[in-house]
TrEMBL record:
Keyword Secreted carried by entry: no
Annotated keywords: Membrane, Transmembrane, Transmembrane helix
InterPro entries, A to Z: Perm_prefix_1 (IPR047928)
Species of the source: Mycolicibacterium litorale
Transmembrane spans: 101-121, 127-145, 154-174, 180-200, 220-244, 256-273, 294-313, 319-340, 352-374, 386-405, 426-445
Protein's name according to its UniProt entry: DUF4153 domain-containing protein
Length: 448
């Protein structure tokens, strides 16, 4: 490879890195590349070699995080327009993505109708157990359509749904028993991985695509919460207005608005995340910056409270459940912080806060394991205890290795990418654990 070819290759790699930052459009990248080439030309004329000129010019351009923020400030009007306007077509005129929006609306309505029909046919208890089967298939179908998956791949996506339906309706659950509730809670977790398989277009072995799905999950939860909040305010105002007119509309809200609103919002939220990926900052990673220090404070206060109590033997069962939910929240914060970080940057204060968060969560997890082991020894084994114990063990492995990798990164012994790869490659463990809970725990306890 001659000098010109090597330089073109380096510029190509640099441009690829630039275009991965969503604040920078293709036109922006063209402008930056022109500036880079001009810098290289000037430096080469001053006597530097091609490699030397390239390195100096890139250094002068600055890091991508700073460039992204600069473009956000410079083009704030454009970024705000991206929130409400479709991207421009090749001729520069906005072309509404009517086909995709039509598909999304059709799927949202279909999910709502499925929920309504399912509730009417199955009744409250059976529908509650099968609720995930009436919404998530439409979300999976949206991504399968968007990623243009082959019929064979789509057939593979149907397997977990068929298996879940067979287990949920074939097992002789004791009505309202513990194993029925456990299966109903963990089935959506299992099927969310089917959604993930569609989201990545079948490329589940790709670490990058798995991390994309983690980012999507966080953004989807945030958008769903925003839709729920906005919908709740609208419904409350509507009910209040009709009550002032002495008109009862609560039955309409309960029988029609709620089923259609909840089911439809799950599909609409996914479309919003997909449609607005070009905004300079995603929401979930920003929230991790806010809630990480608050969560650290909460965990430290809890550890002090446990220390003051002097024993974890008498810990209330509800507290154990809440602590497990807190640990899941911690895992989410860690995942989204990793997903938002530039792996090429050196360690900073937030990385140290992440380590404190993980170590604090690890200490809480160990306390919960001791408390659960003590309760099992004293009161015996139950489905809930075994399920909680399994979750804590899965989290223990994840948090322990995460702490080790973070310490190595902060000491300069390993790159940040090791922590990212660990999380993406550990992700299937959560799906396998949830599947085992749904399929194995009920028969072990005679479906009670």
């Amino acid at each position: 490879m001659d000098v010109d070819e090597a330089l073109e290759s380096q510029i190509g790699q640099w441009r690829g890195y630039v275009e991965r930052h969503n604040a920078i459009s293709a036109a922006d990248a063209d402008e930056m590349e022109d500036h880079l080439r001009s810098q290289i030309s000037d430096l080469s004329a001053a006597g530097l070699t091609g490699d030397e000129a390239f390195l100096v010019a890139v250094k002068r351009m600055g890091n991508m995080g700073g460039i992204s923020r600069e473009f956000a400030r410079e083009h704030s009007d454009r970024l705000w327009k991206q929130l409400v306007l479709p991207p421009a077509g090749p001729d520069g005129v906005g072309r509404p993505p009517t086909r995709e929006l039509s598909v999304v609306l059709a799927l949202a309505v279909a999910a709502a109708v499925a929920v309504k029909v399912g509730f009417a046919v199955l009744g409250e208890q059976d529908f509650a157990r099968n609720a995930a089967l009436f919404v998530l298939p439409f979300l999976t179908g949206y991504f399968a359509w968007k990623r243009r998956m082959s019929p064979r791949a789509v057939a593979v996506l149907l397997v977990p749904y068929a298996a879940a339906a067979a287990v949920l309706n074939g097992y002789p659950f004791v009505p309202e028993g513990s194993t029925e509730v456990i299966a109903a809670i963990h089935t959506p977790i299992v099927l969310w991985f089917a959604v993930g398989l569609a989201y990545v277009g079948g490329r589940w072995r790709s670490d990058r695509r798995r991390m994309d799905f983690i980012r999507f999950t966080g953004e989807w939860i945030v958008y769903l919460a925003l839709l729920a909040f906005g919908g709740g305010v609208l419904v409350g105002l509507t009910v209040g207005a009709f009550e002032a007119l002495d008109v009862d509309v609560e039955w309409v809200i309960q029988d029609w608005v709620m089923p259609f609103g909840v089911a439809g919002a799950m599909v609409i939220a996914a479309w919003l995340v997909e449609a607005k990926q070009n905004v300079v900052e995603n929401i979930a990673p920003v929230l991790t910056r806010v809630f990480t220090p608050l969560t650290i404070l909460m965990l430290l206060v809890l550890l002090v409270a446990f220390a003051a109590a002097g024993s974890v033997v008498g810990v209330d069962r509800n507290l154990l459940i809440l602590m497990d939910l807190i640990l899941v929240l911690v895992l989410g914060l860690v995942l989204y912080a990793i997903s938002a970080r530039d792996p090429h940057l050196p360690p900073d204060l937030f990385d140290r806060l992440q380590l404190v968060l993980v170590v604090s969560a690890l200490a809480v997890d160990l306390l919960m394991l001791v408390a659960m082991a003590t309760r099992i020894a004293e009161f015996g084994v139950t489905p809930n205890k075994v399920t909680a114990l399994g979750l804590n063990l899965v989290l223990l492995v994840n948090l322990t290795w995460s702490a080790r990798l973070m310490v190595g990164f902060l000491r300069g012994r390993r790159g940040f990418s090791a922590a990212e790869q660990w999380q993406t490659r550990y992700l299937p463990v959560f799906g396998l654990w949830a599947a085992a809970v749904v399929a194995v725990i009920p028969p072990l306890f005679d479906f009670a």
